[in-house]
Amino acid sequence: MALDDEKNEGEASGETSEKEIGLSRQNSQSSLSPTEDDEDDEDKKLQLGPMIALKEQLEKDKDDESLRRWKEQLLGVVDLEDVGETPDPVVKILELTIRSPDREEMVLTIPEDGLPNPKGPWFTIKEGSKYTLVFNFRVTNNIVSGLRYNNTVWKTGVKVDSTKAMLGTFSPQAEPYQRVMPEETTPSGMFARGSYSARTKFVDDDNKCYLEINYTFDIRKSWQ
């Protein structure tokens, strides 16, 4: 949901944003074509062994005091009740909160079916307002590595923003984690106001998706 005025002004004038230009340069023909060095690197990639359930790793060598302390430093204090027998981590996104100094917090509960409000906008945000996104989520069963937040926004069918943010690596625990994103400002003006559609995903280093939601939101002159 990171939108800015310059991007919307670019749409109005038919110009391409610097962000889009940067992406197109990165995807040049030369960068997409593999070289001999790339092929050599592919052959030299480290072949990782199978994932092991965290419970098995914790119980292994449990009588070795030095190893036990090393694992605690690496993983933190892991609640065994939140650790399963299988190697796959489980991440549940509990809620999304929108904080703004102009109003009370908006706490948006994540629905099980991934459809926040099929009949209308999930939320409305005021133009030109500062806001911060806050994610609350719970990790169980195993460590999740490289959890990140991906968000894409469209207006009238045209992509106007794409955000990717790293949240981090987390071990299982009973208490939910909370991550606060950097403060942003909504665009303002006639071209900024209106209805937007968005897709939000939470994925890890293995590109496993823990949540994908599609929704709409409005930018208006006021919060109501």
Overall form: elongated
Order of helical and strand elements? HHHHHHEEEEEEEEEE
- Integer average pLDDT: 76
Count up the helices.
6
Using DSSP, what is the number of strands?
10
> What class, by secondary structure content?
alpha+beta
Low-pLDDT sequence parts: 5-49
Alpha carbon gap, first and last residue: 19 Å
- Sheet-strand content, in percent, reads 35-45%
How helix-rich are the residues, as a percent range?
10-25%
Largest sheet: 5 strands, antiparallel
Radius of gyration: 22 Å
Subcellular location: Cytoplasm
Protein name: Rho GDP-dissociation inhibitor 1-like
Main location: cytoplasm
Pfam families: Rho_GDI
List key phrases describing it:
single chain; alpha+beta; five-stranded mixed beta sheet
Folded structure, characterized:
The chain is of the alpha+beta class. It has six helices and ten strands. The chain has helices at residues 5-13, 18-26, 29-32, 36-43, 54-59, 65-75; strands at residues 90-100, 103-109, 123-126, 130-140, 144-155, 158-170, 177-180, 184-185, 194-203, 209-220. Strand 1 and strand 2 (103-109) form a beta hairpin. Mean pLDDT is 76; it is low at 5-49. Residues 24-34 have a biased composition (Polar residues). This is Rho GDP-dissociation inhibitor 1-like. Keywords: Cytoplasm.
